[in-house]
From TrEMBL:
Alphabetized SUPFAM superfamilies for the sequence: Fe-S cluster assembly (FSCA) domain-like
Superkingdom per UniProt: Bacteria
Coiled coil stretches, renumbered: none
Residue ranges of every copy of the MIP18 family-like domain listed in the record: 85-158
A Pfam short name: FeS_assembly_P
Protein's recorded name: Putative Fe-S cluster assembly protein SufT
Organism of derivation: Rhodoferax sediminis
Length: 181
């Protein structure tokens, strides 16, 4: 059974990443594609027989609206920022799995630490569903970029680790239900 997919036209030159190895290449205008997954802020496209990942900031290349950076009240506490960090992590997806990295159990550590002048440093330790996943650096980069857009976050360190190794038992019940497990 084929899912309903939205057909889109590439409107301008745009860089994408090949799934599953992360190789970057440029799509040219007037190329047809199908959206297979649009979760968080990245979009998985099926184009010319391949799956590719389009960053949300480039959503206008297919006629979609790029995501808006989250905001906080001026008097937001460090705990408010920490909560926003976790909300933001829930907008990061493996391009082949329709479940966010938090529900998949990929985030092992999330520290929000003071720096200077009320600025904060976020330190993330995360893993991948498979050690050889070619999209690992891409997912880590998406986490970095999104967290650096948050108010008061000045530094972000994302470390991909493989100890302990990820297993399906680390997924939340919601993730298991979503994947039909």
């Amino acid at each position: 059974m084929r899912r309903n997919r939205e057909t889109v036209l590439i409107r301008r030159p745009v860089w994408v990443e090949l799934i599953p190895d992360g190789t970057r290449f440029e799509l040219m205008p007037d190329t047809m594609a199908e959206i297979t997954q649009a979760l968080g802020s990245s979009i998985t496209l099926y184009v010319e027989g391949r799956l590719v990942r389009l960053q949300g900031d480039d959503a206008d290349a297919i006629g979609k609206t790029p995501p808006v950076a989250p905001s906080l009240a001026a008097d937001a506490s460090t705990d408010d920022v920490r909560a926003l960090v976790w909300e933001t992590l829930k907008t990061c997806y493996d391009p082949e799995i329709p479940v966010d990295i938090v529900e998949l159990g990929l985030v092992y550590v999330c520290d929000v630490l003071p720096l200077h002048d009320d600025q904060l440093r976020v330190s993330i330790k995360m893993t991948l569903t498979a050690p050889g996943c070619g999209m690992g650096e891409s997912i880590a980069q998406e986490v970095r970029q999104k967290l650096l857009r948050l108010p008061r976050v000045e530094e972000v360190d994302v470390e991909v680790v493989f100890d302990p190794p990820w297993s399906r038992s680390m997924m939340s019940e919601a993730a298991e239900l979503s994947l039909g497990l």
